[in-house]
Amino acid sequence: MATSTVVKPFSQMMRTEFERSLCLRSATKLTTIIQHKVSKLSPRVLSRNTTIRPFECVPERRDFSTAAPNLAAIITTNPRKDEEGHEMLIDITERASTRLKEIMTKDSNPSLALRVTVESGGCHGFQYLMSLTNMSAVSQEEDTVFEASNGSGAKVVMDEPSLELLKGSTVDFTMELIGSQFKIVGNPAATSSCGCGTSFDIKP
């Protein structure tokens, strides 16, 4: 019977190897300290079949980017409803809004916004595209503008076809070994996605 091999993403393998190496060094150091303490015990105590066993190292699974609190985004331009009459909404994490505010401050441009677009392509059929845009380039007829509710002024822009595939999802900003990036997480329409999270498949 043929067996399948699961290949871990490079960033996950690097993180796992780093944690294993760190844990092994700590366990070895601790074992050496205990051996030194035991060597100073009296022969009477040592005669009780004293055995020093190396510590087993089981690295704790931790993600470099932990979940960030979600902020319900406020629609400021062109609200839209789906076929069932429900308003199509998204969330923006505190981390994403903070990063957008930093970019606006650095560029001295409060009119900057993050445009999120969905296009066909990628390894799973659809892919997320992120880009910075000026509010002057936003279409009042085709685009919907969301703003973070924390007063940061961070804004996210989506056209109608993209919003239909992203409603209910969250815009986040992640910091990982492979780099930092804005990212879509928790997309209800996605059935699967690639390891880097930029490509996804949808329900038929």
How would you portray this structure in words?
Strand 10 (190-193) and strand 11 (199-202) form a beta hairpin. The two termini are 31 Å apart. It contains 4 helices and 11 strands; from the N terminus they run ααβββαββββαββββ. The strands form 2 sheets. Strands 2-6-7-4-5-11-10 form a 7-stranded mixed beta sheet, with helices on one face. It has a 4-stranded mixed beta sheet with strand order 1-3-8-9. It is α+β, with helices and mostly antiparallel strands and 204 residues long. The chain has helices at 10-39, 43-46, 94-106, 160-166; strands at 70-72, 74-77, 91-93, 112-120, 126-134, 143-147, 155-159, 170-176, 179-185, 190-193, 199-202.
Features:
single chain, 204 residues, alpha+beta, seven-stranded mixed beta sheet, 4 helices
State the helical fraction: 25-40%
What does the overall shape look like? globular
Mean pLDDT, to the nearest integer, reads 75
Q: In terms of structural class, how would the helical and strand content be classed?
A: alpha+beta
Number of helices: 4
Outline the biggest β-sheet: 7 strands, mixed
Q: State the end-to-end distance.
A: 31 Å
Low-confidence stretches at least 5 residues in length (pLDDT < 50)?
A: 1-24, 48-65
Residues in β-strands, percent: 25-35%
Strand order of the largest sheet: 2-6-7-4-5-11-10
Helix-strand sequence: HHEEEHEEEEHEEEE
